[in-house]
Amino acid sequence: MRDTRESRLLLVLLVAIAFALITVDIRGGEDSPVDGARQAAAAVFGPVEDGVSAAVNPVGNAVSAIRDSGERHDRLARLEQENAALKAKLGSDDRSRSRLKQLDKMLKVAGEGQYGIKGAQVIAIGAAQGFSWTITIDAGANDGIQRDMTVLNGDGLVGRVTTVGPNTATVLLANDPDFTVGTRMEASDELGFASGQGDRPLRVELLNGKAEVKKGDRLVTFGSQADKPFVPGVPVGVVSRVDPSGGGLTRTLYVTPYVGFSKLDVVGVVVQAPKKDPRDTVLPAKPKPKPTPTVTVTVTPGADGQDGGGQQQQGDAQDQPLAGGLQPRADDLYQYEQDQ
Fold first, then answer.
1. Euclidean distance between CA atoms 306 and 258, whole angstroms
2. d(Cα 183, Cα 236) in Å, to the nearest integer?
3. How do residues 231-251 score in pLDDT, each as one tens digit?
């Protein structure tokens, strides 16, 4: 349209009409005369607006997702790294606490037995040099380790050193079938020889075929000449079964070892033997037996001289003297009430 006088007059007229309609609509409120026209326009153009919005919104969301994806990926990666570091720290702390507890227990055993020990960590477990039950420790000749030294931990006898390298050593475990150690029974001092049986209890042959032995008795190492390969007094295990005595020269026992050979971590090699046999001092304290509850029932005689068994008879005994002028004792009645 060309800019003419008529077009300008038409524009002014349309603006005036628009202002007039706005004024009428505002003053009319809910009863506005143009409300019907507005509803009609909404009915016509509403679906068009919804369609345009449905078509445009996915595009906008996709653009926003692309824009935020890099930031979300970085945040997720950062959280994963923090989580992994936290898990590693917690795992390390748990393992450190476990090792500290094992070391503390082992030092207590060494102190009670007056053993001079060199601490070491198990770095491998499994078959080595033809032995079926062995471990490798991170201490060797440079640390003063020699062949045929006793190895223990906080629970008891672990084994003996068989091969020594500059910085590592191989230990034959006490449950190996080729392992044999002299033993002594606690208190009775009966001597024998314990042999490994893999994952089964140790087999012990007592030299005295008539020795009195029972389940729960405990054994320690007897010691070797010049304290090699075994120093005396190291806890070995607890008797779990005793074969019947057949009148033979020896008697067979089966002993559950104190040491769990499948979960070794911190061990100690005895590099200096005690000056005297510690005897049974290194054995752990015996568990206290649990008290067995007992029930005491006191029968209170009835008024007719017969034993009473019910609450009513007890009441009668309180009200009436017994035959011969006897009175029921108060502690008997109290005990009876407690038992009921």
1. 59
2. 8
3. 999 999 999 999 987 777 889
222 vs 110, 178, 183, 233, 308, CA distance in Å?
Answer: 16, 18, 5, 6, 63
Q: How far is CA 195 from CA 47, 133, 184, 215, in A?
A: 92, 13, 14, 18
Q: Contact at 8 Å (CB) between 33 and 24?
A: yes
Query: Sign of the C-alpha dihedral, residues 91, 97, 101, 106?
Result: positive
| Residues 6 or more apart whose Cβ sits within 8 Å of residue 147 | 161, 162, 163, 164
User: What CA–CA distance (Å, rounded) separates 314 from 36?
Assistant: 99
pLDDT digits (tens, 9 = 90+) for 187-233: 899 999 999 999 999 999 999 999 999 999 999 999 999 999 999 99
∠ at Cα 131 (129, 132), nearest 5°? 130
Alpha-carbon span 314 to 327, nearest angstrom: 12
Q: Do 214 and 242 form a contact (C-beta atoms < 8 A)?
A: yes
Contact between 142 and 167 (Cβ < 8 Å): yes
Q: Are 213 and 184 in contact (CB under 8 A)?
A: no
User: What letter would DSSP give residue 141?
Assistant: G
CA 133 to centroid of chain Cα atoms: 26
Instruction: Please report, as a single letter, which amino acid is at residue 105.
Output: K
